[in-house]
Amino acid sequence: MTTDWLTLGNRHTGEQLHLRRIVRGGEMCLELKGSLPPRQDGPPLHIHYKEHEEGTVIAGTLSAEVDGRQIEVQAGGTAPLPMGSAHRWWNAGDDTLVFEGVTKPVVDLDVYLGAAFEVLNSGPHNRPPLFYIAHLAWRHRKTQAVLFAPQWIQRVLVPAVVLVGTLLGRYRGTNWPGCPARCSTAPLVGDDEASPAQGRAVNAA
User: What is the pLDDT of residue 2?
Assistant: First the structure.
């Protein structure tokens, strides 16, 4: 990949993602290219409240759960992940999963993923640092959600954890995992109508 892509990697699962923004038909979209090694989980059950996602399998087999329904997509097939759907995906096969996708209209998924990968990489496998994952969840609560607990519990628990973290000074400066000051949008390519906010951090709160 060139510098025209934002590249992210999960050190625990080996997942790789390459992201870039592009304007199609006057709409800002997010292009994704990625891979996941055999027998590895992708992201946990989550929702994009304002973005529609669609993925095409290039190699391997994609297993996914979409609103409680499990699907399997072979190479050449496409998996729609509608706006507002609760979904997760993984690689249950013996071959590397390679995929491409598009998200539209892109709101903040690239910024969110950049911070999420940084937080995940800073802690043990399946145990992201509580204060930093809570801060990420709270500031993107209107656009993204990970369903680690019932949402009514999250509405109470997450801001409480952020408050404690603030009082303890966990969010001072910019040298902490997922700090929004370091999380930028993916590069914009293929169109001259760059947004004024391009390349700057986005706060979805």
Answer: 54
Full-model pTM: 0.89
pLDDT in tens, 100-159: 999 999 999 999 999 999 999 999 998 999 999 999 999 999 999 999 888 888 999 999
Dihedral class, residue 139 (left if φ above 0, else alpha if ψ from -120 to 50, else beta): alpha
Alpha-carbon gap, residue 5 to 24, rounded angstroms: 17
| Token pair in block for residue 179 | 């700090």
Continuous segment of H or E residues that includes residue 31:
strand 27-36
Residue 81 CA to residue 164 CA, distance in Å, equals 35
Question: Which residues on neighbouring strands pair with residue 59, listed in sequence order?
Answer: 98
| Residue 20 near residue 33, CB atoms below 8 Å | no
201 vs 139, 153, 180, 184, CA distance in Å? Answer: 12, 28, 6, 4
